[in-house]
Specification:
By secondary structure, the chain is an alpha+beta fold. Helices cover about 20% and strands about 35% of the residues. The strands form 2 sheets. It has a 17-stranded mixed β-sheet that branches. A two-stranded antiparallel sheet has the order 9-10. Strand 9 and strand 10 form a beta hairpin.
Length: about 290
């Protein structure tokens, strides 16, 4: 059976983590290889199903499942903290276990069921070198040579660079709610400093262990929550001496608890919810958008 034939009546589940939403497809038994056009058609919020990322579950020899992640623009990314919790929920419901392992292009991520129906993901060890982000030239990733310019004249310099599955630049600002990140985010995402583009975050310390965060996500745009950005922000804040090893990161969609442990691993804890299930005719979706 061809992939085109399989695209009729293709089952999916729509899930979200703090409003960061996903369409999840199961390719473990029947191979499913979505193109960039396929992903864009599914993600379209007017003519498709609508989501930030499209996830395809595939067999893995290293973990319970391999998770392929495609952004709303059709590009591919290596890791996503919020959807890792969602996929872990699927796997735990299938197996009855309280643990799951999920292979991504970044690493094998381990997940445990946590209190209150939440899930704790070991996001691994963040990479901090300029080649690891990656950047186009050598510099101190604790204060990168990059400026964010906003309408009205506000400027912020020297973000912190972190790679935790995806490249991140984290700016620390004095009033995150006032910033038009919709205007500034796209320019910074595509800055020549980032050969693979980057997620752009704007963070404001609001308490001894709380940070308010807004994110322009690479390949998606403004998102209600970004798990890897929350992890990167905690790492960046710790590097700047703004917080200790853990904090609550408050995003538009809710709060994630992030802990940068003594062994170097970053643990992200938060919810995962199922929105609905259905089937799609992928070719029909694409035809409507052509």
């Amino acid at each position: 059976m061809t992939r085109r034939a399989q695209s009729k009546g293709l089952p999916f589940v729509k899930m979200e983590g703090l409003g960061n939403d996903f369409v999840i497809l199961d390719g473990r038994k029947k191979p499913l290889d979505l193109t960039g056009d396929d992903a864009r058609a599914i993600a379209d919020r007017h003519l498709g199903i609508g989501c930030d990322q499209i996830i395809t579950l595939q067999p893995s020899k290293r973990a319970d499942v391999f998770m392929r992640i495609q952004n709303a623009d059709g590009s591919e990314t290596a890791a996503c903290g919020n959807v890792t919790r969602c996929v872990a929920r699927i796997l735990m419901n299938e197996t009855g276990k309280r643990t799951a392992t999920i292979e991504t292009l970044f690493d094998v991520l381990k997940v445990k069921a946590a209190k209150g129906g939440e899930f704790a993901v070991d996001m691994g060890v963040p990479k901090l070198g300029w080649r690891d982000i990656p950047l186009s030239r050598e510099m101190d990733t604790g204060k990168m040579d990059l400026e964010a310019k906003f309408k009205g004249g506000k400027r912020f310099n020297g973000p912190v660079g972190v790679n935790i599955g995806n490249p991140h630049a984290v700016f620390f600002v004095d009033d995150v709610e006032s910033l038009d990140i919709e205007h500034t985010g796209p320019t910074l995402e595509h800055d020549k400093l980032f050969p693979e583009r980057a997620n752009i975050s704007f963070a404001e310390k609001t308490g001894p262990a709380t940070i308010r965060l807004r994110v322009w996500e690479r390949g998606t745009g403004v998102t209600m929550a970004c798990g890897s950005a929350a992890c990167a922000t905690l790492v960046a804040a710790k590097r700047r001496g703004l917080v200790d090893h853990e904090a609550d990161i408050i995003l538009d969609g809710g709060t994630l608890h992030i802990d940068w442990r003594a062994d170097g691993h970053v643990i992200m804890t938060g919810p995962a919810a199922e929105s609905f299930r259905g089937t799609m005719d992928l070719e029909a979706l694409k035809a409507r958008q052509s």
